[in-house]
Amino acid sequence: MTVKSADVIVIGAGVIGCSVAHELARDGFSVCVVDRGTGPGQGSTSASSAVVRFNYSTWTGVAAAWESKHLWEQWEDHLDGTDGGLLARFYRTGGLNLESPKQDRRKVLALFDRAGVPYDEWDAATLRERLPQVDPGRHFPPKRVDSNEFWNDPDGELTGYWTPDSGFVDDPQFAAHNLLTAAQRRGATFSFRTSVTGIRTAGGRVAGIDLADGSHLSAPIVVNVAGPHSSRINAMAGVLDDFSVVTRPMRQEVHEVAAPHGYGDRSTPGPVMMDLDLGTYSRGTPAGRLLVGGTEPECDPLQWLDDPDEFDPNPTRTVYEAQVFRAARRLPELTVPNKPSGIAGVYDVSTDWIPVYDRTQLPGYYVAIGTSGNQFKNAPVVGRFMAEIIHACEGGQDHDSSPVQVKLARTGHMADMGHYSRLRTINPNSSFSVMG
Predict the structure, then answer these.
(1) What Å distances lie between residue 361 and 205, 221, 237, 243, CA to CA?
(2) Angle at which helices 105-115 and 59-73 cross, to 10°
């Protein structure tokens, strides 16, 4: 049996796992990343819309997203280099957030004021003037597209707010590769096509992992960043007894269609639009097209999976029509082709759609899980979050009773890691959707 060793094992090479590896390698740990795929970012990361926005229901959520925007803008500086002369690119398009009972606008804007996030409030007339392709009609609550009610006239008009610094990253999978390359420059190693079959313990703490080829890898620290497979890895470790939040794999679809005329082009992609009134979000693409996804409205069934490896990777007509017809109500000039075009992937979703970045009851075993759907944007800072939690816990701090506080380097804000605790009370202010 082959035995190798490292200071830290990171399970999962998505954008979050690669960020964790990068930060720990930067801090001088010898890091080994294992992933069952053939390369970085091939799981949930590859299905991400890579939207960068700031409207979260909590202070730490807003502060993390605002900090991460600065890191995406200074991506080469953050990575201390390029990836073969190239890097994923952040497009600053601006973002429209339409009003909805599903988010407390006053609370969100108060958090923006505290964080220093610029915004403008728009009434319906301003919305028409600034984005004439957008119909501000009020439709809440979202309705099934196969119901007669879906085609009802709007019952009023919406207001919203505009965040000029919102945007998207053009290639989420390449962003993960950028982080991998940066981590490798600092000595991290990556092992792909490598499946974990067990978590090893010794002396009351984690000691490494067993692999499907019969070998094992030894390390006193293991970080579970396995995305939709994270619950399986946690079960192997036997650490779930004290979790107050759970994670489950969920199938999701994102669709791509031609953008309405004048609504973005190759030089200036269309803006991000968060539309809980109709249950969709959208953004432009560098090719001048439009990505459309859903925000889990109550009228649509959620596609929970028992096995994250068994799902249909092709877009379905049912979900395609639900999402794109809703987007067409907001963008009346949007055409809806007969054939679905897009991707399907699997998210790792927590009970309240807020991730868990934490230690566990097994010393040395840490988790960065429940990240899918709304944490891609925070990948640059999540690595630092996990590094600070690991440093504190390995140094003897009781993170459960005295949560780690992280000072954010670009903005100077403080982020409370207790917000991401596995022991937390379910956040009643969450949208319980991808919006967080």
Answers:
(1) 9, 13, 10, 9
(2) 50
Residues with Cβ within 8 Å of 70's Cβ and at least 6 positions away in sequence, in order, are 410, 411
Distance in angstroms (rounded) separating the CA atoms of residues 387 and 410: 17
Cα–Cα–Cα angle for 124, 128, 134, nearest 5°? 100
Regarding pTM above 0.90, the answer is yes
User: Which of 360, 354, 425 shows the shortest CA–CA distance to 393?
Assistant: 360
Instruction: Give the distance, in angstroms, between the CA of residue 94 and the centroid of all CA atoms in the same chain.
Output: 19
Q: How far is CA 285 from CA 267, 282, 319, 325, 374, in A?
A: 10, 10, 21, 19, 18
40-91 per-position pLDDT tens digit: 999 999 999 999 999 998 999 999 999 999 999 999 999 999 999 999 999 9
Structure tokens at 420: 């991401």
CATH architecture, range 92-165+250-347: 2-Layer Sandwich (3.30)
| 3-84+171-246+352-420: in CATH 3.40.120.10 | no
Close Cβ partners of 41 (under 8 Å, ≥ 6 residues apart): 13, 14, 15, 18, 172, 173, 174, 175, 176, 177
